[in-house]
Amino acid sequence: MEAIIILFLTGIIALFLGIFKQPKLTTVSSILGLVAAGIVQYFPLDILSDKYNILEFGDAGNAFVILALMITALIILSGDKGFQEDKSHVGDYHALLLFSLSGGIILIGFKDIFMFFLGLEILSIPLYVLAGAKRQSKESSEAAVKYFFMGAFATCILLFGVALIYGSTQSFELEKILEFTAENPVGPIFYVGLLFILASFLFKVGAAPFHFWVPDVYQGSPTVFMGYMSSVVKLVGVFAFVKFFRIAFDNVHEFWTILIAVLIAISMFIGNLSALVQTKFKRLLAYSSITNGSYALMSILYQGSVQDSSLWIFMVGYGMSVVALITISTIVNDERDEISSLKGIGYKNPLIGLVAIVALLSTSGIPPFTGFFGKLMIFSAVWVNYPWLIILALINSAIGVYIYLRLIMTILSKENSETTSKLSITILQQGVLISCLVILTFGWVFLAGWK
Amino acid sequence: MGSLVSAGVAIFHLLNFDSTAPLTTLYENHTLPFGMTFHIGYDGLGLLMIMLTNLIIPIILLSNYNNSKTSESSLFHALVFLMQFGLLGVFSAEDGILFYIFWEFTLIPIFLILYWFGNGTNKILLKFFIYTLIGSLGMLLSFIALRTHATSFDYVDLVAAKLPAKKACWIMSGIMLAFAIKIPVFPFHTWQPDTYTSAPMSATMLLSALMLKMALFGMIKWMLPLAPEGIADLKWLVLILSVVGLLYAAVMCIRMNDIKRLFAYASISHLGLIAAGIMIFTKDALVGASVQIVNHSIIAVGLFLIAEILESRLNTRNMSEMQGTATLAPKFGFWFAVIAFASVSIPFTAGFIGEFTLLKELTDFNPWIGILSSTTLVFGAVYTLRAYQLSMFGAPKNEIFEDLRWNEIAVFFILSIAVVVFGLFPHLISDLVGPSLDRILAIFNAPTSL
């Protein structure tokens, strides 16, 4: 609770600093705000929590909040160079990111559908703006409009579903819905409402059959915000999805788990097979985020995934890989965003090469990197009930390795493209790359330290 | 130098080793979530492989000394040491997931070595990586499935797991897929000749002398004990595939003119024999397999060094253009002959002991299989001596051929000494691995006797 307030205040401070055109100070204050929010989240002050008992985090929730804060901080640092050049808007970018993040934290801690809806909107609305932040570019505007309209429709569907659920259970609170379904038989209206909510969630996390917006929006958005969308938003969205369904609808899980399992299988194939033929880097990342989102979504198929470390460790691996890759993309800074423009960048600059290898191998689930542990834990928990899904997932892993390996070969090539011959990396970006490297390589430390 | 330090540590462990103790644990941590453990240790078999790794890697680096492209690159050495780290991990892992982690980890440095220092096309590399990875995913799947019957991924718990026969068969085929691709057993071998030919010499040595041994080691230590219930169904399949593979590869060798490719196929042929021997699963066969594993590593380094010397000095791999090298370089001719004789396993070399034991056990198991596999000795002699004859004898086609340098002589010397020592005193190996093999066999025999 206090963390949200701190973030919100930091956002407002960033707006003011933006008015006075202080880009450096804005970055410093945002980072400090994020760090302060993390500290407050980890060592709760309990000033407000007694009075406003509407959010509940628990150990797992805290871990997710801290992860989201950390990834956001890294994204801000990696995009800092671009922000500094755009002096008149630097405050807006920071403020919108922070506002969106405070919505994300509500989405992690919600206890009832009302707070959930509030969090979802606070998370989404700044993103519609950020997607269109590159105002001269047609693609960016297209992305913003597309995202906004699709998001608005998804929200409508969600609200409709919520109304139906409320109508059949007389409650907004997740626990009460659970109790109600345990004691009373539920009618078709409840199931229709559940399906509506499911649909809007699938839209938010970009899973099939509601994934069509993902590539266009990701490609159009500025790289940094695209990184935010595919890491933090995905993390929060999947977490909220799992928490919502595993608490509120746990008693009727026979009804929806098989449906979600089939949809996950479809999304994996759509994401991977489309990624095979991409030539644009961000579009490739978008399709890979569809695939990885569906791996993460598998954690909805077994009990206790919100409390144990499987989803979290997966998200650490995936989020850090995204941060690393978008940082590399920012460094290359190619307007056309072709994959071939990355050619030789790793050989030219060993740090980038190393980080790229580690990030891509981690996403493809090759040990000993963090992504492997997440995948392993999720897969082996799902194996008990859905062995066929895991076999499909491993086939997809193999396809994924092919995709990422080609990318690695491009990055490590000894030949250079024109863009790679004039690289410039700021110290901040180096720092981001190094921290990604460390976290991705030593992810198993988190495993040992999980409470 | 670093590899020598590591070898020193390993020798220290060897001296302190008590082969009757079940397992020397180096580090153990059972607190990780999800039944993963961090458990490292070794038994006799593991220690043999660790010793082998630590001895072969300095030799590879020594033989690589002349290759200025790789030997002056710090990147290359870093990758080789990463490789060594992975290999040692594989041989000392006492936990299914840890084994898998190290197993996959070795792929990364070898892939990078092949990519940066080899001359293969991207297609060959992708084929190699994806091929081996698909096998490994099968193994991972098997471990995940096995975990549902065991309390944790620890080796002891995995071995103790009781499985229904049908499931055990599936689990075993999953693990076998990984090893079969790596060894490579017959229908899965297509990645190997291309990769070997396009790789730089040291990577070929690493691949054939050490990486493939991971699979054989894995078969003995992991595949059979974990799901012994399934062995009855798979035994014949693997045996027949191995024998077909070894005959096929041997026949291919006879017609081959490309010397490096010839040695690649020879490697398939030799390893097919070892894989077949392991599948019979008797004490003698396993001891023979261990001796042969060591022997093949030594021979492989020697043969690929020969191929490299010929290729780098004559700029061709085609044997018909190499005639008469022996007259130009008598020292080279001599050492090639020594390695070639070791390769065809004449008596007093380790190959003789290893292959003879394996063939005896195969014949005991089934005479037809024994007879078919024995032809590999004949074929082996034919293709090795043909290679020697084509490249060494005849009127010299080339005018200059620089004779061996000091490091090459040193490598050949060490290798031949090792082959002869293990050939005269095979009990050095069998005493080391014997007790641990007994333990594995005990696991294997317990459920079938019930």
Task: Provide structural commentary.
The complex is a heterodimer of chains A (451) and B (450). Chain A has 451 residues and is mainly α. Chain A has one domain. Chain A has 20 helices and no strands. Chain A starts with a helix and ends with a helix. In chain A, α2 packs antiparallel against α3 and α3 runs parallel beside α14. Chain A is 75% helix and 0% strand. Chain B has 450 residues and is mostly helical. Chain B has one domain. Chain B has a two-stranded antiparallel ribbon with strand order 1-2. Chain B is globular. At the A-B interface, α17, α18 and α20 of A face α5, α6 and α7 of B.
User: Biggest sheet of chain B: strands side by side, in what order?
Assistant: 1-2
The succession of helices and strands of chain A, N to C, reads: HHHHHHHHHHHHHHHHHHHH
Low-pLDDT runs of 5+ residues of chain B are none
Q: Uncertain regions of chain A: pLDDT < 50 for 5+ in a row?
A: none
Q: Name the structural class of chain B.
A: mainly alpha
Total strands of chain B: 2
Question: Helix and strand layout, with pairings?
Answer:
The complex is a heterodimer of chains A (451) and B (450).
Chain A: H1 2-19, H2 23-42, H3 58-78, H4 80-85, H5 90-109, H6 113-131, H7 138-169, H8 174-183, H9 188-205, H10 213-220, H11 223-248, H12 253-275, H13 281-297, H14 310-332, H15 345-348, H16 350-363, H17 370-382, H18 387-412, H19 427-441, H20 444-449
Chain B: H1 2-15, E1 24-29, E2 38-42, H2 44-63, H3 68-71, H4 74-92, H5 96-105, H6 107-117, H7 122-147, H8 155-160, H9 165-182, H10 191-198, H11 201-226, H12 231-255, H13 259-280, H14 283-314, H15 325-328, H16 330-343, H17 350-365, H18 367-392, H19 406-424, H20 427-449
Antiparallel strand pairs in B: 1-2
Helix pairs in contact in B: 1-2, 2-4, 2-11, 2-14, 2-19, 2-20, 4-5, 4-6, 5-7, 6-7, 7-9, 7-10, 9-11, 10-13, 11-13, 11-14, 11-20, 12-13, 12-18, 13-14, 13-17, 13-18, 14-16, 14-17, 14-19, 14-20, 16-18, 16-19, 17-18, 17-19
